[in-house]
Amino acid sequence: MTKEQERARARRRHEEQQKSAKPPVGDSTRDKQVFGVILAVILIVAAVIVVPKIVGSSDSPAPAAGATTPASTATGTATSTPTSTGGLAAGQKLAAGCTAPPANQTTPKQQKEVPAKAAAAGKTFVATVKTTCGDLTFELDGAKAPQTVASFINLAKTGYWAPSPCHRVTTEGIYVLQCGDPTGTGQGGPGYTFGIENAPKDGKYATGVLAMARTSDPNSNGGQFFITYKETQLPTDGGGYTIFGKVTKGLDIVEKIAANKALPPSPADGTPVSPISILSVSVTEKKA
Questions:
Q1: Which of 90, 182, 242, 268 supports an S-S bond with 105, CB 3.0-4.6 Å?
Q2: What is the CATH number of domain 60-285?
Q3: Which sequence spans correspond to the domains of the chain?
């Protein structure tokens, strides 16, 4: 084979290799690939941050919450409540006249049947609520909210709330202290639920009102309730929130807790800086 033939053969091999080789990535293509990788990373990070918030907000009980609804919403969910061994959580401090809270319950008493409202219908009751900051006295209106009052009496007699923290305070937009979940998470309930009674059509809740906390489901009333320590306007969507009584003594205690606001990161809505826990509840019928 001559040198000329060898050079020709080499050229043919080179041409064949060039045909089968992948073309080089141009600058514009490379830029698109890099941008795609960055975008994918951003989407993954966003999903990790946002999705838990969305999921959490759908499950938390909420009467008048966030800036617009009361009771255990995602922002109301207690993430810094006292530990299972009792005492203060990080950042908490006792208000004057208060003692350290006991441990939250891990397995509250559960019931399947809704208490019969006939037990409270047409009657008025007085509830004495002993707390770590002093006694509160409620007047319960069985004429306007017989199902709710019957449930409250039942939970008091069975010791459901002994003990349980007031796990949420709101200090902007709405003014409530929310209590009644023995676990302190804002997710606890007695095992049964019932519907709305005696909710104001205009959404106005006077100072000292005692009302039920619930989720967006109108039939989700259970064991959580809230106290308005200042006149509050709440949304009427979904039927509003059941008013079943009023505070007749001890509202100053609630005001004291609210004055110290909530723990960071949201001082306007969350776990109280100054803890207060229910130790026992007793109820007697008020005679005419």
A1: 182
A2: 2.40.100.10
A3: 60-285
